[in-house]
Automatic annotation (TrEMBL), chain A:
Protein kinase domain: residues covered: 23-277
BP terms from Gene Ontology: signal transduction
GO molecular function: ATP binding; protein serine/threonine kinase activity
Alphabetical keyword list: ATP-binding, Kinase, Manganese, Nucleotide-binding, Serine/threonine-protein kinase, Transferase
Similarity annotation: Belongs to the protein kinase superfamily. CAMK Ser/Thr protein kinase family. SNF1 subfamily.
The name this protein goes by in its record: non-specific serine/threonine protein kinase
Domain NAF, residue spans: 302-326
From TrEMBL, chain B:
Keyword Membrane: yes
Compartments reported by the entry: Membrane
Name of the protein this chain belongs to: Calcineurin B-like protein
Function: Acts as a calcium sensor. CBL proteins interact with CIPK serine-threonine protein kinases. Binding of a CBL protein to the regulatory NAF domain of a CIPK protein lead to the activation of the kinase in a calcium-dependent manner.
Entry annotated with the keyword Calcium: yes
CDD domains in alphabetical order: EFh
Source organism superkingdom: Eukaryota
Organism of provenance: Camellia sinensis (Tea plant)
A Gene Ontology term for the protein's cellular component: membrane
PANTHER family cross-referenced by the UniProt entry: CALCINEURIN B, CALCINEURIN B-LIKE PROTEIN 8
BP term (GO), one: calcium-mediated signaling
Length: 432, 217
């Protein structure tokens, strides 16, 4: 590799099929004006990724370099089961490589192009979409380019939103179908976005969700026109017609989302509160709702480990490098107590029951699981106790599932207050 | 005043290793050249937090680890000493990268085992002595504001030495340490920092000014 003279090639074709001795590039799976996407394999893990290759020249010419950097940081923030994950970024003097989660289920677009979906199936996808979108909004991230082409499926038929945050150069990788919007057409764009006034990113994304729901149920776009001006007009007036098979409930939902006035347009929380949204029919095939696949697997009770002096030492904050990376380990809380393990477990159980969580426990472990699905599935809290001596118990509390923000909130509002009197402090020192 | 400092900072030449240095570091660690470049971004932040001289001083290291920079921690001091490979009182960029490499999830287990052994071998005798272990336990209890009776501390230390010291000489040698860690892998938990796999996302500035040629990736 070192002896090949690099050619001043302007093409997007990588000069070698091995990147960083880590990724082996395979076949081209999509291309557009900004990017090419390759099938690639991580040689260290065997994992398949989608490698998006972008020419820096083009990004710089379009003046989008800062936006790209900002959006990489955004992608790092939005880890969610319904959002395509960005694993890593690589760069050379001329190109940027995005190693992204590769999805085997193809595009939702393909499914719809074979025929419109039944209401239950459409609702299932739509719920996952709204979950992902609402999660991002809770992190201050807006997609701004939601469309059917950005919705992919994994091998289990779960929906994953792609190009979240990378919308700066999102584009159609294929231009073959009726529903594939040509670059720049506003089929999914909210009226206030066309107006180019300042707008609420959350409400604009919800409009696009409304268009997507319409497309899933009908098989075609709600706003279509031969020329762009008349299309704008239709969007401004929310001028569309329901086909006869839309149920009254779905019509109500779509009308709520495709409200040209962003202020009266339904919000994500209002939407998730509707009985239509909450309706839960057991979905056939292997399509699992996200909440159940999100980390609430039952695990075998591990063999109990006794703590020695080295475990105690490693509790030191000075031996935790994560703050160097701007990360505080909020997800794990460790404390020492003079209380017996059974008392800690008992206390946790009370907290769980008070919050109407389901409780599973053993002698040394307790697991609280929320009954309602949060932003990232059901919230789960696990606590494990380790007896160091008869008079010293170390307790480790960590998130077993769900959203980190919700977990942190639960810890500070419910858990910590309930545990304060047993957490060890200097004034309650031990006298053995 | 602030703007003056700002100007001053702009003019100040920050030591910037050439891409050659980065390539060497990458070849000798678990990081790729891009990751070394991303780490350089982090290093620049850490090394200019108190004294903007392109070197990480002990105070800057503590400031990065604790919200409260004045907090004392024996293990943070020990980490600094081990990072400072040249023992000249500052962590240079190369030392920073080489040391962090051991904390990477893909770093060889043996390196992590050896690193923690050196961390706890406070007086560099080649053994973790009983009194070193006790000192470490006391330091932690102090850090957590816990007071345990001397008997209780002795009991914890004794129990651990008894378990680890297979040869019965009252101290832990590297071999015994290896076996202890094999039985209690969670002792090494702090040696793996998952965030290290995401540094290219956390510090993406390198995508603009990377020195990597297309032929080198």
């Amino acid at each position: 590799m070192a002896d090949t003279t690099p050619k001043p090639s302007q093409s997007n074709q990588p000069t070698s099929n091995l990147l960083n001795n880590k990724y082996e590039l395979g076949r081209l799976i999509g291309s557009g004006s900004f990017a090419r996407v390759y099938h690639a394999k991580n040689l260290l893990t065997g994992e398949t990724v989608a490698m998006k290759v972008v020419s820096k020249d083009k990004i710089i010419k379009a003046g989008m370099m800062d936006q790209v950097k900002r959006e990489i940081s955004i992608m790092k923030k939005v880890h969610h089961p319904n959002i395509v994950k960005l694993h890593e970024v690589m760069a050379t003097k001329s190109k940027i490589y995005f190693a992204m989660e590769y999805l085997r289920g193809g595009e939702l677009f393909e499914k719809v192009s074979q025929g419109r979906l039944k209401e239950d199936s459409a609702r299932n996808f739509f719920k996952q979409l709204v979950c992902a979108v609402d999660f991002c909004h809770s992190r201050g991230v807006y997609h701004r380019d939601l469309k059917l082409e950005n919705l992919l499926l994994d091998e289990n038929g779960n929906l994953k939103v792609t190009d979240f945050g990378l919308s700066a150069f999102s584009e159609n990788l294929k231009q073959d179908g009726l529903l594939h919007t040509a670059c720049g057409t506003p089929a999914y764009v909210a009226p206030e976005v066309i107006g180019k006034r300042g707008y609420d990113g959350a409400k604009a994304d919800l409009w696009s969700c409304g268009v997507i729901l319409f497309v899933l149920l009908s098989g075609y776009l709600p706003f279509q026109s031969k020329n762009i001006i008349s299309m704008y007009k239709k969007i401004y007036r929310a001028d569309f017609k329901f086909p006869p098979w839309f149920s009254p409930e779905t019509q109500m939902i779509v009308n709520g989302l495709l409200d040209p006035n962003p202020i009266t347009r339904i919000s994500a929380s209002e939407l998730m509160d509707t009985s239509w949204f909450k309706f839960n029919k057991t979905i056939p095939q292997n399509v699992k709702p996200m909440s159940e696949s999100d980390g609430i697997e039952s695990e075998e009770e591990k063999e109990k480990e006794t703590l020695n002096a080295f475990h105690i030492i490693s509790l030191s904050e000075g031996f935790d490098l994560s703050p160097l990376f701007g990360e505080r380990k909020e997800e794990e809380m460790r404390f020492a107590t003079a209380a017996a393990a059974s008392r800690v477990i008992e206390r946790m159980e009370e907290v769980g029951k008070a919050a109407e969580f389901s409780v599973r426990k053993s002698e040394s472990k307790v697991r609280l699981v929320g009954n309602e699905s949060g932003r990232k599935g059901k919230l789960a809290i696990e606590a494990e106790t380790f007896a160091v001596t008869a008079a010293l118990t170390v307790v480790e509390v960590k998130k077993g599932g769900g959203d980190t923000f919700e977990y942190n909130q639960f810890c500070s509002k419910e858990l910590r207050p309930a545990l304060t009197d047993i957490v060890w402090t200097a004034d309650k020192s031990l006298t053995t | 005043m602030r703007s003056f400092l700002g100007c001053f900072r702009l003019k100040k030449a920050v030591h910037k290793p050439g891409s050659g240095d980065h390539a060497i570091l990458a070849s000798e660690t678990t990081f790729t050249v891009n990751e070394v470049e991303a780490l350089h971004d982090l290093y620049n932040q850490l090394s200019s937090s108190i004294i903007d001289d392109g070197l990480i001083h002990k105070e800057e290291f503590q400031l990065a680890l604790f919200d409260n920079g004045s907090k004392q921690s024996l293990l943070a001091d020990r980490l600094f000493d081990l990072f400072d490979l040249k023992q000249n009182g500052v962590i240079e960029f190369g030392e920073f990268v080489r040391s962090l490499s051991i904390f990477h999830p893909n770093a060889p287990e043996a390196e992590k085992v050896a690193f923690v052994f050196r961390l706890y071998d406070l007086r560099c005798t080649g053994y973790i002595e009983r009194d070193e272990l006790k000192e470490l336990v006391l330091a932690l209890l102090n850090e957590l504001d816990l007071t345990l009776s001397n008997d209780a501390v002795e009991a914890i230390v004794d129990k651990t030495i008894m378990e680890a010291d297979l040869k019965g000489d009252g101290r832990i040698d590297p071999e015994e340490w290896k076996e202890l860690v094999a039985r209690h892998p969670s002792i090494l938990k702090n040696m793996t920092v998952p965030y290290l796999t995401e540094i290219t996302l956390a510090f993406p500035s390198f995508v603009l000014n990377t020195g990597v040629q297309e032929s080198e990736l």
